[in-house]
Amino acid sequence: MLAHLGRRFAGLLLVLFIVAALVFFLTRLAPGDPAALMLGDQATAEDIAKLRTAYGLDKPLVVQFVLWLKEVASGNLGHSIFLQRPVTQALLERAEPTFFLALFSLAIATAIGVPAGIASAVWRGRPIDQAVSGLAMLAANIPSFWLGLIFIQLFAVKLGWFPVAGYGSPEAGLAERLQHLLLPSAVLGVVNSALITRFTRASMLDILSADFLRTARAKGLSERRVLLEHAFRNILVPVITVLGLTLALLIGGAIVTETVFGLPGIGNLVVSAVLRRDYPVIQGALLAVAAIYVLINLLIDLIYTLVDPRVRY
Amino acid sequence: MNSPVLAFCRSLFRRKLVLVATLVLLIAFVLAVFAPWLSPFDPGAMRVVRRLRPPGEVNWFGTDELGRDIFSRVVWGARASLGIGFSVVVISITLGAALGLVAGYFKRLDGPIMRLVDALMSLPDILLAIFLVAVLGASAGNVVLALSIVYTPRVVRVIRASTLVVREMPFVESARSIGASTARILSIHLLPNIASPVLVQATFIFAYAVLAETGLSFLGAGVPPEVPTWGTMIASGQQFADDAFWLVAFPGLAIVFVALSLQIVGDGLRDMLDPRLRKAL
Known about the structure:
The structure holds 2 protein chains of 2 kinds.
Chain A: H1 2-29, H2 34-39, H3 45-54, H4 61-73, E1 79-80, E2 85-86, H5 87-122, H6 127-140, H7 144-158, H8 174-208, H9 211-218, H10 223-234, H11 236-261, H12 266-275, H13 279-307
Helix pairs in contact in A: 1-13, 5-6, 5-8, 5-11, 5-13, 6-8, 7-8, 7-11, 8-11, 9-10, 11-12, 11-13, 12-13
Chain B: H1 3-12, H2 16-33, H3 35-38, H4 70-105, H5 107-121, H6 125-136, H7 140-166, H8 170-177, H9 182-190, H10 195-219, H11 230-237, H12 246-273, H13 275-278
Helix pairs in contact in B: 2-4, 2-12, 4-5, 4-7, 4-10, 4-12, 5-7, 6-7, 7-10, 8-9, 10-11, 10-12, 11-12
Protein backbone atom coordinates (compact mmCIF):
# COMPACT_ATOMS: atom_id res chain seq x y z
CA MET A 1 0.00 0.00 0.00
CA LEU A 2 2.71 2.46 1.06
CA ALA A 3 4.90 1.48 -1.85
CA HIS A 4 1.95 2.02 -4.18
CA LEU A 5 1.26 5.42 -2.66
CA GLY A 6 4.92 6.37 -3.08
CA ARG A 7 4.86 5.36 -6.74
CA ARG A 8 1.63 7.24 -7.36
CA PHE A 9 3.04 10.31 -5.66
CA ALA A 10 6.21 10.21 -7.74
CA GLY A 11 4.10 9.94 -10.90
CA LEU A 12 2.02 12.87 -9.73
CA LEU A 13 5.10 15.03 -9.20
CA LEU A 14 6.38 14.10 -12.67
CA VAL A 15 3.09 15.16 -14.26
CA LEU A 16 3.17 18.45 -12.35
CA PHE A 17 6.79 19.02 -13.41
CA ILE A 18 5.79 18.57 -17.05
CA VAL A 19 2.86 20.96 -16.60
CA ALA A 20 5.19 23.50 -14.98
CA ALA A 21 7.68 23.18 -17.85
CA LEU A 22 4.94 23.47 -20.50
CA VAL A 23 3.38 26.48 -18.85
CA PHE A 24 6.72 28.20 -18.27
CA PHE A 25 8.23 27.76 -21.72
CA LEU A 26 4.96 28.35 -23.62
CA THR A 27 4.52 31.60 -21.72
CA ARG A 28 7.98 32.69 -22.79
CA LEU A 29 7.03 31.96 -26.42
CA ALA A 30 4.31 34.58 -26.25
CA PRO A 31 4.99 37.72 -28.23
CA GLY A 32 6.12 40.74 -26.23
CA ASP A 33 8.59 41.26 -23.41
CA PRO A 34 6.97 40.32 -20.08
CA ALA A 35 8.70 43.24 -18.34
CA ALA A 36 7.39 45.71 -20.92
CA LEU A 37 3.92 44.15 -20.63
CA MET A 38 3.95 44.48 -16.86
CA LEU A 39 4.97 48.13 -16.95
CA GLY A 40 2.57 49.22 -19.68
CA ASP A 41 3.00 51.74 -22.49
CA GLN A 42 4.51 54.55 -20.39
CA ALA A 43 7.64 52.62 -19.36
CA THR A 44 11.10 53.84 -20.39
CA ALA A 45 13.76 51.46 -21.66
CA GLU A 46 15.61 51.97 -18.38
CA ASP A 47 12.59 50.95 -16.27
CA ILE A 48 12.17 47.84 -18.37
CA ALA A 49 15.83 46.91 -18.01
CA LYS A 50 15.61 47.41 -14.25
CA LEU A 51 12.56 45.19 -13.97
CA ARG A 52 14.19 42.57 -16.17
CA THR A 53 17.11 42.35 -13.74
CA ALA A 54 14.82 42.41 -10.71
CA TYR A 55 12.78 39.48 -12.02
CA GLY A 56 15.79 37.64 -13.43
CA LEU A 57 14.40 37.98 -16.94
CA ASP A 58 17.90 38.75 -18.28
CA LYS A 59 19.16 35.27 -17.35
CA PRO A 60 19.07 32.29 -19.73
CA LEU A 61 15.63 30.63 -19.98
CA VAL A 62 16.68 27.35 -18.37
CA VAL A 63 18.19 29.20 -15.40
CA GLN A 64 14.98 31.21 -15.08
CA PHE A 65 12.99 27.98 -15.12
CA VAL A 66 15.08 26.39 -12.37
CA LEU A 67 14.85 29.53 -10.24
CA TRP A 68 11.07 29.65 -10.77
CA LEU A 69 10.68 25.96 -9.89
CA LYS A 70 12.63 26.53 -6.66
CA GLU A 71 10.26 29.34 -5.72
CA VAL A 72 7.20 27.28 -6.67
CA ALA A 73 8.45 24.34 -4.60
CA SER A 74 8.61 26.61 -1.56
CA GLY A 75 5.04 27.77 -2.18
CA ASN A 76 5.79 31.09 -3.87
CA LEU A 77 3.99 31.32 -7.21
CA GLY A 78 5.34 34.77 -8.05
CA HIS A 79 4.01 38.30 -7.87
CA SER A 80 1.31 39.98 -9.94
CA ILE A 81 2.12 43.57 -10.88
CA PHE A 82 -1.47 44.17 -11.99
CA LEU A 83 -2.98 42.99 -8.72
CA GLN A 84 -0.14 44.33 -6.53
CA ARG A 85 0.08 41.14 -4.51
CA PRO A 86 1.60 37.65 -4.52
CA VAL A 87 -0.14 35.18 -6.84
CA THR A 88 -0.66 32.70 -3.97
CA GLN A 89 -2.53 35.39 -2.03
CA ALA A 90 -4.64 36.33 -5.06
CA LEU A 91 -5.57 32.67 -5.59
CA LEU A 92 -6.48 32.14 -1.94
CA GLU A 93 -8.62 35.29 -1.87
CA ARG A 94 -10.59 34.01 -4.85
CA ALA A 95 -10.80 30.39 -3.70
CA GLU A 96 -14.00 30.62 -1.63
CA PRO A 97 -16.62 31.17 -4.37
CA THR A 98 -14.97 28.59 -6.63
CA PHE A 99 -14.77 26.02 -3.84
CA PHE A 100 -18.44 26.38 -2.87
CA LEU A 101 -19.54 26.58 -6.50
CA ALA A 102 -17.78 23.28 -7.26
CA LEU A 103 -19.14 21.67 -4.10
CA PHE A 104 -22.77 22.75 -4.66
CA SER A 105 -22.66 21.86 -8.34
CA LEU A 106 -21.31 18.40 -7.53
CA ALA A 107 -24.08 17.93 -4.96
CA ILE A 108 -26.76 18.99 -7.46
CA ALA A 109 -25.26 16.91 -10.28
CA THR A 110 -25.13 13.85 -7.99
CA ALA A 111 -28.66 14.39 -6.72
CA ILE A 112 -29.88 14.45 -10.32
CA GLY A 113 -27.54 11.93 -11.93
CA VAL A 114 -27.44 8.97 -9.52
CA PRO A 115 -31.22 8.49 -9.00
CA ALA A 116 -31.91 9.21 -12.69
CA GLY A 117 -29.25 6.70 -13.76
CA ILE A 118 -30.55 4.00 -11.43
CA ALA A 119 -34.18 4.55 -12.46
CA SER A 120 -33.24 4.48 -16.09
CA ALA A 121 -31.37 1.18 -15.68
CA VAL A 122 -34.10 -0.47 -13.62
CA TRP A 123 -36.80 0.52 -16.11
CA ARG A 124 -34.59 -0.02 -19.10
CA GLY A 125 -36.25 0.65 -22.45
CA ARG A 126 -39.36 2.12 -20.82
CA PRO A 127 -40.44 5.74 -21.36
CA ILE A 128 -38.60 6.87 -18.19
CA ASP A 129 -35.35 5.43 -19.54
CA GLN A 130 -35.81 7.17 -22.87
CA ALA A 131 -36.69 10.45 -21.17
CA VAL A 132 -33.68 10.28 -18.85
CA SER A 133 -31.25 9.31 -21.61
CA GLY A 134 -32.60 12.03 -23.87
CA LEU A 135 -32.37 14.72 -21.22
CA ALA A 136 -28.86 13.62 -20.23
CA MET A 137 -27.78 13.87 -23.86
CA LEU A 138 -29.32 17.33 -24.12
CA ALA A 139 -27.67 18.52 -20.87
CA ALA A 140 -24.25 17.37 -22.07
CA ASN A 141 -24.53 19.47 -25.22
CA ILE A 142 -25.82 22.77 -23.88
CA PRO A 143 -23.06 25.34 -23.48
CA SER A 144 -23.05 26.21 -19.78
CA PHE A 145 -22.81 29.95 -20.43
CA TRP A 146 -25.92 29.83 -22.61
CA LEU A 147 -27.87 27.85 -20.04
CA GLY A 148 -26.62 30.39 -17.49
CA LEU A 149 -28.04 33.28 -19.53
CA ILE A 150 -31.38 31.46 -19.83
CA PHE A 151 -31.48 30.75 -16.09
CA ILE A 152 -30.64 34.38 -15.30
CA GLN A 153 -33.45 35.59 -17.56
CA LEU A 154 -35.95 33.12 -16.19
CA PHE A 155 -35.21 32.80 -12.48
CA ALA A 156 -33.50 36.08 -11.67
CA VAL A 157 -34.87 38.72 -14.06
CA LYS A 158 -38.43 37.45 -14.69
CA LEU A 159 -39.23 35.59 -11.47
CA GLY A 160 -36.82 37.44 -9.17
CA TRP A 161 -36.06 34.35 -7.08
CA PHE A 162 -32.30 34.79 -7.17
CA PRO A 163 -29.81 37.65 -7.42
CA VAL A 164 -28.85 38.31 -11.05
CA ALA A 165 -25.09 38.28 -10.61
CA GLY A 166 -22.18 38.94 -8.29
CA TYR A 167 -21.29 37.66 -4.84
CA GLY A 168 -23.03 40.17 -2.58
CA SER A 169 -21.48 43.21 -0.96
CA PRO A 170 -18.02 42.74 0.55
CA GLU A 171 -19.43 42.79 4.10
CA ALA A 172 -22.24 40.36 3.26
CA GLY A 173 -22.53 37.33 5.52
CA LEU A 174 -21.85 33.78 4.37
CA ALA A 175 -25.58 33.10 3.94
CA GLU A 176 -25.99 35.98 1.50
CA ARG A 177 -22.88 34.99 -0.41
CA LEU A 178 -24.07 31.41 -0.67
CA GLN A 179 -27.43 32.60 -1.99
CA HIS A 180 -25.57 34.11 -4.94
CA LEU A 181 -24.12 30.68 -5.65
CA LEU A 182 -27.39 28.78 -5.98
CA LEU A 183 -28.24 29.74 -9.55
CA PRO A 184 -24.70 29.24 -10.97
CA SER A 185 -24.50 25.92 -9.10
CA ALA A 186 -27.80 24.83 -10.63
CA VAL A 187 -26.43 25.58 -14.11
CA LEU A 188 -23.18 23.70 -13.57
CA GLY A 189 -25.00 20.91 -11.75
CA VAL A 190 -27.48 20.33 -14.57
CA VAL A 191 -24.79 20.40 -17.27
CA ASN A 192 -22.56 17.99 -15.36
CA SER A 193 -25.30 15.61 -14.26
CA ALA A 194 -25.27 14.07 -17.76
CA LEU A 195 -22.02 12.16 -17.33
CA ILE A 196 -23.03 10.90 -13.87
CA THR A 197 -26.40 9.72 -15.21
CA ARG A 198 -24.87 7.77 -18.09
CA PHE A 199 -22.21 6.20 -15.89
CA THR A 200 -24.64 5.22 -13.15
CA ARG A 201 -27.01 3.72 -15.71
CA ALA A 202 -24.26 1.71 -17.38
CA SER A 203 -22.84 0.37 -14.10
CA MET A 204 -26.30 -0.48 -12.81
CA LEU A 205 -27.15 -2.37 -16.02
CA ASP A 206 -23.97 -4.40 -15.60
CA ILE A 207 -24.79 -5.35 -12.05
CA LEU A 208 -28.52 -6.05 -12.54
CA SER A 209 -27.85 -9.35 -14.23
CA ALA A 210 -25.45 -10.53 -11.50
CA ASP A 211 -26.05 -13.85 -9.77
CA PHE A 212 -26.00 -12.42 -6.27
CA LEU A 213 -29.03 -10.28 -7.09
CA ARG A 214 -30.93 -13.38 -8.13
CA THR A 215 -29.94 -14.96 -4.83
CA ALA A 216 -31.09 -11.90 -2.93
CA ARG A 217 -34.45 -12.03 -4.69
CA ALA A 218 -34.69 -15.80 -4.24
CA LYS A 219 -34.35 -15.50 -0.50
CA GLY A 220 -37.36 -13.19 -0.54
CA LEU A 221 -35.89 -9.72 -0.11
CA SER A 222 -38.05 -6.83 -1.23
CA GLU A 223 -37.14 -5.31 -4.61
CA ARG A 224 -36.29 -2.10 -2.78
CA ARG A 225 -33.69 -3.81 -0.59
CA VAL A 226 -32.31 -5.77 -3.51
CA LEU A 227 -31.71 -2.58 -5.48
CA LEU A 228 -30.68 -0.16 -2.77
CA GLU A 229 -28.57 -2.45 -0.61
CA HIS A 230 -27.25 -5.16 -2.87
CA ALA A 231 -27.06 -3.50 -6.25
CA PHE A 232 -26.23 0.07 -5.27
CA ARG A 233 -23.34 -0.92 -3.02
CA ASN A 234 -21.73 -2.64 -5.97
CA ILE A 235 -21.82 0.33 -8.27
CA LEU A 236 -20.14 2.60 -5.72
CA VAL A 237 -16.68 2.25 -7.26
CA PRO A 238 -17.66 3.37 -10.77
CA VAL A 239 -19.94 6.04 -9.34
CA ILE A 240 -17.16 7.44 -7.15
CA THR A 241 -14.88 7.45 -10.18
CA VAL A 242 -17.32 9.50 -12.17
CA LEU A 243 -17.94 11.86 -9.25
CA GLY A 244 -14.21 12.53 -9.02
CA LEU A 245 -14.03 13.00 -12.77
CA THR A 246 -16.97 15.40 -12.58
CA LEU A 247 -15.33 17.38 -9.78
CA ALA A 248 -12.27 17.80 -11.98
CA LEU A 249 -14.47 18.87 -14.90
CA LEU A 250 -16.27 21.34 -12.66
CA ILE A 251 -13.04 23.30 -12.17
CA GLY A 252 -13.04 23.96 -15.90
CA GLY A 253 -16.78 24.59 -16.01
CA ALA A 254 -16.46 27.07 -13.15
CA ILE A 255 -14.26 29.31 -15.29
CA VAL A 256 -17.05 30.00 -17.77
CA THR A 257 -19.89 30.00 -15.25
CA GLU A 258 -18.12 32.46 -12.94
CA THR A 259 -17.77 34.84 -15.87
CA VAL A 260 -21.48 34.63 -16.74
CA PHE A 261 -22.56 35.25 -13.16
CA GLY A 262 -19.81 37.73 -12.28
CA LEU A 263 -18.56 35.62 -9.39
CA PRO A 264 -15.16 36.76 -8.10
CA GLY A 265 -13.66 33.25 -8.16
CA ILE A 266 -10.48 31.67 -9.54
CA GLY A 267 -12.07 31.26 -12.97
CA ASN A 268 -12.79 34.95 -13.17
CA LEU A 269 -9.23 35.68 -11.99
CA VAL A 270 -7.77 33.48 -14.74
CA VAL A 271 -9.93 34.98 -17.50
CA SER A 272 -9.02 38.54 -16.58
CA ALA A 273 -5.36 37.52 -16.21
CA VAL A 274 -5.45 36.06 -19.73
CA LEU A 275 -7.12 39.14 -21.17
CA ARG A 276 -4.45 41.45 -19.71
CA ARG A 277 -1.60 38.94 -20.10
CA ASP A 278 -0.78 38.78 -16.41
CA TYR A 279 1.59 35.83 -16.82
CA PRO A 280 2.54 35.18 -13.17
CA VAL A 281 -1.16 34.74 -12.35
CA ILE A 282 -1.80 32.55 -15.41
CA GLN A 283 1.17 30.31 -14.60
CA GLY A 284 0.29 30.05 -10.92
CA ALA A 285 -3.39 29.34 -11.54
CA LEU A 286 -2.66 26.67 -14.17
CA LEU A 287 -0.22 24.93 -11.88
CA ALA A 288 -2.63 25.11 -8.93
CA VAL A 289 -5.51 23.71 -10.99
CA ALA A 290 -3.36 20.87 -12.33
CA ALA A 291 -2.24 20.06 -8.78
CA ILE A 292 -5.86 19.94 -7.59
CA TYR A 293 -6.75 17.70 -10.54
CA VAL A 294 -4.03 15.12 -9.90
CA LEU A 295 -4.76 15.17 -6.15
CA ILE A 296 -8.44 14.46 -6.82
CA ASN A 297 -7.42 11.49 -8.93
CA LEU A 298 -5.14 10.19 -6.18
CA LEU A 299 -7.93 10.61 -3.63
CA ILE A 300 -10.35 8.64 -5.82
CA ASP A 301 -7.87 5.76 -5.84
CA LEU A 302 -7.61 5.85 -2.06
CA ILE A 303 -11.38 5.94 -1.62
CA TYR A 304 -11.63 2.74 -3.71
CA THR A 305 -9.85 0.79 -0.98
CA LEU A 306 -12.38 2.09 1.53
CA VAL A 307 -15.55 1.24 -0.38
CA ASP A 308 -14.39 -1.96 -2.03
CA PRO A 309 -12.40 -4.35 0.16
CA ARG A 310 -11.43 -6.30 -2.97
CA VAL A 311 -9.26 -3.40 -4.14
CA ARG A 312 -5.83 -3.72 -2.56
CA TYR A 313 -2.61 -2.04 -3.52
CA MET B 1 -22.38 2.60 -55.17
CA ASN B 2 -20.37 0.02 -53.32
CA SER B 3 -22.46 -2.19 -51.14
CA PRO B 4 -20.52 -2.25 -47.82
CA VAL B 5 -20.99 1.52 -47.55
CA LEU B 6 -24.67 1.16 -48.37
CA ALA B 7 -25.13 -1.60 -45.82
CA PHE B 8 -23.26 0.47 -43.26
CA CYS B 9 -25.54 3.45 -43.79
CA ARG B 10 -28.65 1.30 -43.78
CA SER B 11 -27.82 -0.20 -40.42
CA LEU B 12 -26.69 3.16 -39.02
CA PHE B 13 -29.91 4.88 -40.04
CA ARG B 14 -32.12 2.10 -38.75
CA ARG B 15 -32.39 4.24 -35.65
CA LYS B 16 -34.63 7.16 -36.57
CA LEU B 17 -32.88 9.53 -34.17
CA VAL B 18 -29.53 8.97 -35.88
CA LEU B 19 -31.15 9.67 -39.24
CA VAL B 20 -32.69 12.91 -37.97
CA ALA B 21 -29.37 13.99 -36.42
CA THR B 22 -27.56 13.27 -39.70
CA LEU B 23 -30.09 15.40 -41.56
CA VAL B 24 -29.61 18.27 -39.09
CA LEU B 25 -25.86 18.08 -39.63
CA LEU B 26 -26.31 17.93 -43.38
CA ILE B 27 -28.43 21.08 -43.31
CA ALA B 28 -25.88 22.83 -41.08
CA PHE B 29 -23.06 21.91 -43.48
CA VAL B 30 -24.99 23.07 -46.52
CA LEU B 31 -25.70 26.40 -44.77
CA ALA B 32 -22.04 26.70 -43.80
CA VAL B 33 -20.68 25.95 -47.27
CA PHE B 34 -23.23 28.01 -49.21
CA ALA B 35 -23.60 30.83 -46.66
CA PRO B 36 -22.92 33.62 -49.21
CA TRP B 37 -25.81 32.42 -51.39
CA LEU B 38 -28.21 31.23 -48.70
CA SER B 39 -28.16 34.11 -46.23
CA PRO B 40 -30.84 36.68 -47.11
CA PHE B 41 -28.76 39.66 -45.93
CA ASP B 42 -25.12 40.65 -45.60
CA PRO B 43 -24.21 39.48 -42.05
CA GLY B 44 -22.24 42.68 -41.43
CA ALA B 45 -24.75 45.17 -42.91
CA MET B 46 -25.87 47.56 -40.18
CA ARG B 47 -29.27 49.27 -40.34
CA VAL B 48 -29.61 51.18 -37.13
CA VAL B 49 -33.25 52.11 -37.86
CA ARG B 50 -34.09 48.43 -37.73
CA ARG B 51 -32.13 47.66 -34.55
CA LEU B 52 -33.34 45.10 -31.96
CA ARG B 53 -36.38 44.05 -34.02
CA PRO B 54 -38.01 40.85 -32.75
CA PRO B 55 -38.26 37.86 -35.10
CA GLY B 56 -40.66 38.66 -37.94
CA GLU B 57 -41.36 38.36 -41.65
CA VAL B 58 -38.35 40.29 -42.94
CA ASN B 59 -35.82 39.28 -40.31
CA TRP B 60 -36.77 35.70 -39.45
CA PHE B 61 -34.62 35.61 -36.29
CA GLY B 62 -34.89 39.36 -35.56
CA THR B 63 -32.10 41.92 -35.67
CA ASP B 64 -29.28 42.72 -33.24
CA GLU B 65 -28.20 45.93 -31.52
CA LEU B 66 -26.75 47.29 -34.77
CA GLY B 67 -29.67 46.23 -36.94
CA ARG B 68 -27.85 43.27 -38.45
CA ASP B 69 -29.97 40.30 -39.54
CA ILE B 70 -29.57 37.50 -36.99
CA PHE B 71 -30.60 34.69 -39.34
CA SER B 72 -27.86 35.69 -41.78
CA ARG B 73 -25.37 35.88 -38.94
CA VAL B 74 -26.37 32.43 -37.65
CA VAL B 75 -25.83 31.05 -41.18
CA TRP B 76 -22.42 32.73 -41.44
CA GLY B 77 -21.71 31.64 -37.88
CA ALA B 78 -22.17 28.03 -39.01
CA ARG B 79 -19.37 28.66 -41.51
CA ALA B 80 -16.98 29.88 -38.82
CA SER B 81 -18.00 27.55 -35.99
CA LEU B 82 -18.20 24.39 -38.11
CA GLY B 83 -15.08 25.37 -40.04
CA ILE B 84 -13.12 25.69 -36.82
CA GLY B 85 -14.61 22.46 -35.44
CA PHE B 86 -13.81 20.53 -38.60
CA SER B 87 -10.22 21.79 -38.74
CA VAL B 88 -9.72 20.83 -35.09
CA VAL B 89 -11.00 17.32 -35.83
CA VAL B 90 -8.66 16.85 -38.81
CA ILE B 91 -5.57 18.11 -36.97
CA SER B 92 -6.15 16.39 -33.64
CA ILE B 93 -7.11 13.06 -35.22
CA THR B 94 -4.05 13.08 -37.51
CA LEU B 95 -1.66 14.10 -34.77
CA GLY B 96 -3.32 11.90 -32.16
CA ALA B 97 -3.40 8.83 -34.38
CA ALA B 98 0.29 9.22 -35.22
CA LEU B 99 1.35 9.70 -31.60
CA GLY B 100 -1.00 6.98 -30.34
CA LEU B 101 0.30 4.43 -32.86
CA VAL B 102 3.88 5.25 -31.96
CA ALA B 103 3.20 5.12 -28.20
CA GLY B 104 1.35 1.82 -28.52
CA TYR B 105 3.83 0.17 -30.84
CA PHE B 106 7.23 1.33 -29.59
CA LYS B 107 7.50 0.51 -25.88
CA ARG B 108 10.41 2.90 -25.40
CA LEU B 109 8.43 5.94 -26.57
CA ASP B 110 5.30 4.97 -24.67
CA GLY B 111 6.42 6.49 -21.35
CA PRO B 112 7.42 9.97 -22.55
CA ILE B 113 4.40 10.39 -24.85
CA MET B 114 1.91 9.26 -22.25
CA ARG B 115 3.37 11.47 -19.50
CA LEU B 116 2.99 14.45 -21.81
CA VAL B 117 -0.60 13.35 -22.47
CA ASP B 118 -1.24 13.02 -18.71
CA ALA B 119 0.13 16.51 -18.13
CA LEU B 120 -2.02 18.06 -20.85
CA MET B 121 -5.09 16.23 -19.59
CA SER B 122 -4.55 17.43 -16.02
CA LEU B 123 -5.72 20.88 -17.14
CA PRO B 124 -9.40 21.53 -17.85
CA ASP B 125 -10.06 21.82 -21.61
CA ILE B 126 -11.23 25.39 -21.56
CA LEU B 127 -8.43 26.56 -19.23
CA LEU B 128 -5.73 25.01 -21.41
CA ALA B 129 -7.41 26.49 -24.47
CA ILE B 130 -7.60 30.07 -23.17
CA PHE B 131 -4.00 29.81 -22.00
CA LEU B 132 -2.84 28.65 -25.43
CA VAL B 133 -4.87 31.32 -27.24
CA ALA B 134 -3.40 33.94 -24.90
CA VAL B 135 0.12 32.75 -25.70
CA LEU B 136 -0.45 32.33 -29.45
CA GLY B 137 -2.61 35.42 -29.96
CA ALA B 138 -6.34 35.59 -30.70
CA SER B 139 -7.19 34.59 -34.26
CA ALA B 140 -9.29 31.88 -35.88
CA GLY B 141 -6.15 29.95 -36.86
CA ASN B 142 -4.77 30.04 -33.34
CA VAL B 143 -8.10 28.94 -31.87
CA VAL B 144 -7.91 25.90 -34.18
CA LEU B 145 -4.32 25.24 -33.10
CA ALA B 146 -5.11 25.64 -29.39
CA LEU B 147 -8.17 23.37 -29.51
CA SER B 148 -6.24 20.78 -31.53
CA ILE B 149 -3.59 20.69 -28.79
CA VAL B 150 -6.36 20.32 -26.20
CA TYR B 151 -8.08 17.38 -27.93
CA THR B 152 -5.07 15.49 -29.33
CA PRO B 153 -4.32 13.77 -25.97
CA ARG B 154 -7.78 12.14 -25.96
CA VAL B 155 -7.15 10.66 -29.39
CA VAL B 156 -3.69 9.48 -28.32
CA ARG B 157 -5.15 7.58 -25.36
CA VAL B 158 -7.83 5.85 -27.44
CA ILE B 159 -5.49 4.96 -30.31
CA ARG B 160 -2.75 3.73 -28.00
CA ALA B 161 -5.16 1.46 -26.14
CA SER B 162 -6.41 -0.06 -29.41
CA THR B 163 -2.88 -0.38 -30.76
CA LEU B 164 -1.75 -2.29 -27.66
CA VAL B 165 -4.49 -4.85 -28.33
CA VAL B 166 -4.04 -5.14 -32.09
CA ARG B 167 -0.23 -5.35 -32.05
CA GLU B 168 -0.41 -8.68 -30.18
CA MET B 169 -2.70 -10.27 -32.77
CA PRO B 170 -1.41 -13.17 -34.86
CA PHE B 171 -1.76 -11.33 -38.18
CA VAL B 172 0.70 -8.68 -37.02
CA GLU B 173 3.16 -11.35 -36.00
CA SER B 174 2.79 -13.12 -39.33
CA ALA B 175 3.27 -9.83 -41.18
CA ARG B 176 6.47 -9.28 -39.25
CA SER B 177 7.65 -12.84 -39.85
CA ILE B 178 7.34 -12.51 -43.61
CA GLY B 179 9.53 -9.43 -43.38
CA ALA B 180 7.12 -6.48 -43.48
CA SER B 181 8.73 -3.21 -42.44
CA THR B 182 7.55 -1.37 -39.32
CA ALA B 183 6.10 1.44 -41.42
CA ARG B 184 4.13 -1.10 -43.45
CA ILE B 185 2.86 -2.88 -40.33
CA LEU B 186 1.74 0.41 -38.80
CA SER B 187 0.04 1.79 -41.87
CA ILE B 188 -1.38 -1.31 -43.55
CA HIS B 189 -2.01 -3.68 -40.67
CA LEU B 190 -2.61 -1.56 -37.59
CA LEU B 191 -4.23 1.63 -38.85
CA PRO B 192 -7.26 0.04 -40.59
CA ASN B 193 -7.94 -2.04 -37.50
CA ILE B 194 -8.17 0.96 -35.21
CA ALA B 195 -10.20 3.04 -37.66
CA SER B 196 -13.54 2.60 -35.90
CA PRO B 197 -12.57 4.12 -32.53
CA VAL B 198 -10.96 6.97 -34.53
CA LEU B 199 -14.20 7.63 -36.38
CA VAL B 200 -16.20 7.66 -33.14
CA GLN B 201 -13.71 9.99 -31.45
CA ALA B 202 -13.82 12.29 -34.46
CA THR B 203 -17.54 12.98 -34.06
CA PHE B 204 -17.20 13.56 -30.31
CA ILE B 205 -14.23 15.90 -30.76
CA PHE B 206 -16.21 17.79 -33.38
CA ALA B 207 -18.98 18.36 -30.81
CA TYR B 208 -16.50 19.33 -28.05
CA ALA B 209 -14.66 21.69 -30.37
CA VAL B 210 -17.83 23.50 -31.46
CA LEU B 211 -18.82 23.89 -27.79
CA ALA B 212 -15.32 24.97 -26.74
CA GLU B 213 -15.01 27.51 -29.57
CA THR B 214 -18.22 29.18 -28.48
CA GLY B 215 -17.00 29.14 -24.88
CA LEU B 216 -13.71 30.78 -25.84
CA SER B 217 -15.43 33.44 -27.94
CA PHE B 218 -17.84 34.07 -25.08
CA LEU B 219 -14.92 34.63 -22.69
CA GLY B 220 -13.38 37.06 -25.16
CA ALA B 221 -10.35 34.79 -25.56
CA GLY B 222 -11.25 33.38 -28.95
CA VAL B 223 -11.98 34.56 -32.44
CA PRO B 224 -11.98 38.39 -32.74
CA PRO B 225 -15.50 39.73 -32.03
CA GLU B 226 -16.07 41.13 -35.52
CA VAL B 227 -16.12 37.59 -36.98
CA PRO B 228 -19.68 36.24 -36.57
CA THR B 229 -19.42 32.88 -34.79
CA TRP B 230 -22.18 31.49 -32.59
CA GLY B 231 -20.02 32.24 -29.54
CA THR B 232 -19.25 35.88 -30.40
CA MET B 233 -22.95 36.44 -31.19
CA ILE B 234 -23.99 35.25 -27.73
CA ALA B 235 -21.18 37.22 -26.08
CA SER B 236 -22.14 40.50 -27.73
CA GLY B 237 -25.87 39.81 -27.38
CA GLN B 238 -25.88 39.05 -23.66
CA GLN B 239 -26.06 42.67 -22.53
CA PHE B 240 -29.35 43.04 -24.44
CA ALA B 241 -30.71 39.72 -23.20
CA ASP B 242 -33.19 41.34 -20.81
CA ASP B 243 -35.25 42.93 -23.59
CA ALA B 244 -34.15 41.11 -26.72
CA PHE B 245 -33.54 37.49 -25.81
CA TRP B 246 -33.57 36.42 -29.46
CA LEU B 247 -30.05 37.84 -29.73
CA VAL B 248 -28.69 34.97 -27.64
CA ALA B 249 -31.48 32.42 -28.19
CA PHE B 250 -30.90 31.63 -31.87
CA PRO B 251 -27.12 31.23 -31.93
CA GLY B 252 -27.45 29.16 -28.72
CA LEU B 253 -30.05 26.89 -30.30
CA ALA B 254 -27.78 26.46 -33.32
CA ILE B 255 -24.95 25.29 -31.03
CA VAL B 256 -27.22 22.88 -29.15
CA PHE B 257 -28.68 21.38 -32.36
CA VAL B 258 -25.29 20.82 -33.94
CA ALA B 259 -23.53 19.51 -30.82
CA LEU B 260 -26.45 17.24 -29.96
CA SER B 261 -26.63 15.86 -33.50
CA LEU B 262 -22.89 15.16 -33.55
CA GLN B 263 -23.20 13.34 -30.24
CA ILE B 264 -26.15 11.26 -31.46
CA VAL B 265 -24.33 10.29 -34.66
CA GLY B 266 -21.20 9.49 -32.62
CA ASP B 267 -23.21 7.30 -30.26
CA GLY B 268 -24.84 5.57 -33.21
CA LEU B 269 -21.48 4.87 -34.81
CA ARG B 270 -20.04 3.57 -31.56
CA ASP B 271 -22.96 1.28 -30.91
CA MET B 272 -22.66 -0.12 -34.38
CA LEU B 273 -18.90 -0.46 -34.52
CA ASP B 274 -18.40 -1.76 -31.00
CA PRO B 275 -21.04 -4.39 -30.18
CA ARG B 276 -19.65 -4.83 -26.65
CA LEU B 277 -20.83 -1.33 -25.74
CA ARG B 278 -24.22 -1.72 -27.34
CA LYS B 279 -25.93 -2.93 -24.22
CA ALA B 280 -24.26 -0.61 -21.73
CA LEU B 281 -24.70 2.94 -22.90
